[in-house]
Amino acid sequence: MTLTLKDQLDLTAIRKQFPVLDQSVNGNPLIYFDNAATTQKPLAVISEISRYYTEDNANIHRGIHTLAERATAAYENTRKSIAQFINANESEEIIFTKGTTDSINLVAHSLGGSLLKPGDEVLISCMEHHSNIVPWQIICEKTKAVLKIIPINDKGELIFEEFLNLLSERTKIVSMVHISNTLGTINPVKKVIAAAHKWGAKVLIDGAQATPHNKIDVKSLNCDFYAFSGHKMYGPTGVGVLYGKRSLLEAIPPYQGGGEMIKEVSFTQTTYNEIPYKFEAGTPNIAGVTGLNKAIEFVQSIGLDQISHHENALLLRATTQLSEIEGFQPMGTASEKASVISFNIEGVHPFDLGVLLDAKGIAIRTGHHCTQPLMDRFKVEGTARASFAIYNTFEEVDQFVSALSNLIKKLR
């Protein structure tokens, strides 16, 4: 049964589903605040991966024996679950990839490679992850299209008026992060999509950080493509999802060639398979896909409203307490924000903070977080970043802030 916001979260029961949390690191109980990089995996996901390899290990779609049929059924059932999870029109609009990066590369090369002409423009924002920068640089260089950057303000928010000013008949593709992995900023993607569509542009949304925290409705958003990763939402690494509208998926060429993505092959001609298989060349990460289904079931068992409510409470508590530390310098103070805090402490290198907190068993991320242009925008080399998930507790936040405060006193 899904909890309501009036119910008390049983964090003890939730945490028991994550065996990795029940350990000591450097003599201290583990506090894991690196969830924006990857989330931990519940037993249901771990058990499903083991179950697949111990019971059903067989290639999919190509065999008539029992193991192949069971593996195929589990794989395709996940596709149906994901379509329902993001409210796609049909499961055929769901393509399995290696992750968000792979999904964006697919769109950049298949859509961008066939659509873009010299002088055309692709718009991305200043807060993009490298995965949503480099593929567009590559395809723009190949097609002689122009990559343009939507600026942000000092709070880390998209300057929407500047975005509108950049749009024109030359704009063919807009690709934007839904939630920034560094700033936590939640972008107004529905408004972005509507504005871009008025100029006939296609829109890809990078949802890697959004799917673990917020309900996604691709029909309501009316995005052309939506990409996300399993490992950011309690699922396995090496598996991701690309949603695309049927009309576009049927129109664009495949990204890779090989087995499964074909109907017929001769040495003179190849005809491609129907969607989604046209974009799924080779043997996929079958165990990862079936494990992703269990991750979705885990998220749904708690409810995204409940997850968001808890994480926002953690964010508020941490932000309030951190703000009391002398020299605390947050990066990303948007009014619409997810459970990510990037910060620096005046006079202390973020790498030193990361190393010293790890000695206390506290895992945070330090560096540029694969957003170097964003760091350049704020004139910093990097930040420390704490990011929260459903299994984190208020007590962990308190211990983190206390440890950080004590370290800073010693460093100064």
Mind explaining what this structure looks like?
The protein is globular. A 7-stranded mixed beta sheet has the order 4-10-9-8-7-5-6, sandwiched between helices. The protein has a 4-stranded antiparallel beta sheet with strand order 13-14-17-16, covered by helices on one side. The protein has 2 domains: 131 residues, Aspartate Aminotransferase, domain 1; 255 residues, Aspartate Aminotransferase, domain 2. The protein has 14 helices and 17 strands. The protein is α/β, with parallel strands linked by helices and 412 residues long.
List keywords for this structure.
alpha/beta, Aspartate Aminotransferase, domain 1, Aspartate Aminotransferase, domain 2, 2 domains, 17 strands, 39% helix, globular, disordered N terminus
Number of strands: 17
Low-confidence stretches: 1-6
| Strand content bin | 15-25%
Overall average residue pLDDT: 94
In whole angstroms, the N-to-C terminal distance is 50 Å
Provide a short characterization of the protein structure.
This protein is an alpha/beta fold. The chain has helices spanning 11-16, 43-56, 66-85, 100-115, 134-143, 160-166, 189-198, 218-221, 246-251, 286-302, 304-322, 350-358, 372-377, 394-411; strands spanning 24-25, 28-29, 31-32, 94-97, 121-125, 146-150, 171-177, 202-206, 225-229, 240-244, 262-265, 270-272, 328-331, 340-345, 362-363, 365-367, 383-387. It is built from 14 helices and 17 strands.
Helices and strands in order, then pairings?
Blueprint: H1 11-16, E1 24-25, E2 28-29, E3 31-32, H2 43-56, H3 66-85, E4 94-97, H4 100-115, E5 121-125, H5 134-143, E6 146-150, H6 160-166, E7 171-177, H7 189-198, E8 202-206, H8 218-221, E9 225-229, E10 240-244, H9 246-251, E11 262-265, E12 270-272, H10 286-302, H11 304-322, E13 328-331, E14 340-345, H12 350-358, E15 362-363, E16 365-367, H13 372-377, E17 383-387, H14 394-411
Parallel strand pairs: 3-15, 5-6, 5-7, 7-8, 8-9
Antiparallel strand pairs: 1-2, 4-10, 9-10, 11-12, 13-14, 14-17, 16-17
